[in-house]
């Protein structure tokens, strides 16, 4: 590891360089190189998505929407009304709607795992986003601490300069005072 990165780890993060993870090391290195650390995590996730992943996400997006819920509710009302009242004698699926129960069970058996797969992928995306947010926040924090150090150095050098100027002026005042004291008083 670079000596400067080790120094930054000790000074800014108050940690030994060997105690840093790869993420912290990458952040410190990017700080040292003055490069950005941000990236589009959506592109990285989209690059690794398969066709099945996209289909599962689409099914979850549709299956979890109010339009699907309301449309399916309308379907259930039509099915129930059609088979209970309109087709009382020749009902396709008479009460207690056994075929409807079979359809609903099959739909739930297929839809639930697909939605779970989509949620698991979303959880993984959230983990990637959280790790990226940590990197960006850590880099911002390090940059702010470095700026504070620079400001402190500037302030310190300014104070030293003012002190030297005060000493120089005090010396000039002392010399002027000596000259005035050495001059005979004229009355």
UniProtKB/TrEMBL annotation:
Entry annotated with the keyword Transmembrane: yes
InterPro entries tied to this protein: DUF1003
Source organism superkingdom: Bacteria
Keywords tagged on the record: Membrane, Transmembrane, Transmembrane helix
Transmembrane stretches, start-end: 66-86, 98-117
PANTHER family per record: INTEGRAL MEMBRANE PROTEIN-RELATED, MEMBRANE PROTEIN
The protein, known as: Cyclic nucleotide-binding protein
Species this protein is from: Mesorhizobium hawassense
């Amino acid at each position: 590891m670079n000596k400067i990165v080790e120094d930054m780890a000790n000074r800014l993060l108050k940690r030994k360089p060997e105690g840093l993870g790869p993420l912290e090391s990458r952040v410190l290195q990017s700080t040292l190189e003055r490069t950005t650390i941000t990236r589009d995590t959506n592109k990285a996730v989209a690059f690794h998505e398969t066709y099945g992943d996209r289909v599962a996400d689409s099914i979850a997006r549709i299956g979890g929407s109010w339009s699907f819920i309301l449309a399916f509710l309308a379907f259930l009302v039509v099915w129930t009304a059609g088979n209970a009242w309109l087709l009382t004698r020749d009902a396709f699926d008479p009460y207690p709607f056994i075929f409807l129960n079979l359809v609903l069970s099959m739909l739930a058996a297929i839809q639930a795992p697909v939605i779970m797969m989509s949620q698991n992928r979303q959880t993984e995306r959230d983990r990637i986003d959280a790790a990226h947010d940590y990197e960006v926040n850590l880099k911002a924090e390090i940059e702010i601490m470095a700026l504070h150090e620079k400001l402190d150095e500037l302030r310190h050098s300014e104070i030293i300069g003012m002190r030297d100027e005060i000493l120089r002026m005090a010396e000039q005042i002392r010399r002027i005072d000596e000259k005035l004291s050495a001059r005979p008083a004229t009355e």
